[in-house]
Amino acid sequence: MAPAAPMPAPPLLLPILLALALALAVRGTRGCPAACRCYSMTVECGSLGLREIPAGIPPATQTVFLQDNGVAQIRQQDLAGLRGLQYLYLQNNSVSALEPGAFRAQHRLLELALNANRIHLLQASVFQGLDHLRVLYLAGNQITRLLDCTFCDLQRLQELHLQENSIETLAERALAGLSSLALLDLSKNNLRTVTHATLHPLLSLQVLRLTENPWRCDCALHWLGAWVKEEGRRLLSPLDKKIVCAEPPRLAHQSLLDVSGNSLICIPPAVHVQPAEATARLGDDLHVSCQASGYPQPLVSWRKVARAQAGPARARPPGVELSEHSLGQALDSDTGSGMLFLSNITLAHAGTYECEASNPGGTARVLFQLTVNLSLHQQQQQRGAPGTDVSQEPLYDLESMDFQALSVATQTAIAVGIALLALVALLLLAMIGRKHRKRKRAKKEENILYVNDYSDGPTTFAQLEEYRDARGHEMFVIDRSKPLFATYKDPEALGGPFPGLPEPVQDQATQTPEGAEEEEGEQEPGELFVNQGLVFQPQIAYEIHC
């Protein structure tokens, strides 16, 4: 019996099969980003000029190569779907920003390469989620400092590569949490010092590289020299032991191991605040300088002291610490000199501030007192109505006796009192001046006698003698009945030495028309009272000058 012939496919089945095949093909192409190569569980996208992490990487991928591109930032959404990722290589890119929590979903990541990028600041939140990370490459970036607890989430980290950065400062707890770290490379940075407390959390450390840093060999590195000679033998290779001093100049280019402990010295800081206290008004800006000296150059910081600690400005001796609850947040810090900048001052700014200077040699602190006063207009606005009692006037610093801190009534009374005192002083000065002028005029008139006689005719010499000074002073007589005086500018009108004037009296016998007795003594012509430019009206009068 012949076998039955296969039944032909229904006419609609062929288009359905073609659509399924096309869908599978499209799905297969979506499993690998464009221009990348995908094989097994690896995606390779190196040297493609990418500006960001490409989308479409399969979720099951374990290794991603993105080196030698132009990726500028890493965001949370870029890696959120790659929960099985174990190796991520992003070296030689332009990464400058790491978004906090960018690796939060990468709990299985073992190795992260971010070397040769543009990272300049690391925050602790950046590495959240990397519970199993073993190796972290951060070499060749622009990192300048490591903050406290930067790597606290990397408790299983074994290798930390930080060489070839610009690290100047390691916070005391910058390496906290790295209890499993076996290799730490800090070579080729700008480190000048490192404290023993900074390396204390590294319980599993086996290799430490500190070469090619500008070390400052002072008392702060005394521990490092002793540590290298003892415990450091097992951690440092012969090359790593070459810790060369860059300063002070007397120790430059010398190995730390060759410098005696007595040569590693520090000078405790001395602090000076200018001004020591100040009074400001609402809305003012204030700059206060805190200068510190010592070696090495002290680190200066400002903080506000709680009201319970407020008091007059004074220096606190080194070693005396304030309790944590008495201090506010640090306001500013600098090396060598610190400026306290307060802008748009409010009443909350009033109080006591502390400038602290510290170096390995010790700590010094000085207080600064700030008082904030209201202007008259501002006081009225706060009170809402004038005439507030003086006892209720707000003084925003108990030690302040500033005029602006007084009430309106007190200020008005003081101003009126000052005005009255000034008026009394002016009146006294006027009275003294008036009396002085009267005395001067009376003294001048004591030696001048004026005689005018209009009723009985000219006064005779006999009558004039009654007015003479009892001490026999000489007399000069001017007859004003003569014509008007000629001026000195008219030489032709001058009939003699002094025209219009009688000759000086030589003796009584020759000058007395009515036969009066002879007067003894002669008159000097040079003492004649003459005013050549004066013009008199004709009248009968005599003047006697004694």
UniProtKB/TrEMBL annotation:
GO BP: any one term: positive regulation of synapse assembly
Signal peptide: 1-31
Pfam families, sorted: Ig_3 (PF13927), LRR_8 (PF13855)
Cellular component aspect of the GO annotation: membrane
PROSITE patterns from the UniProt entry: IG_LIKE, LRR
Location of the region described as Disordered in the Swiss-Prot/TrEMBL record: 496-525
Predominant subcellular localization, coarse grouping: membrane
Ranges annotated as spanning the membrane: 413-433
Annotated membrane topology: Single-pass membrane protein
Annotated Ig-like domain residues: 269-373
Record keywords: Disulfide bond, Glycoprotein, Immunoglobulin domain, Leucine-rich repeat, Membrane, Repeat, Signal, Transmembrane, Transmembrane helix
Biased composition (Acidic residues): 515-525
Annotated compartments: Membrane
Superkingdom of the organism of origin: Eukaryota
PANTHER family named among the record's database cross-references: IG(IMMUNOGLOBULIN) AND LRR(LEUCINE RICH REPEAT) DOMAINS, LEUCINE RICH REPEAT CONTAINING 24
Protein name, per record: Leucine-rich repeat-containing protein 24
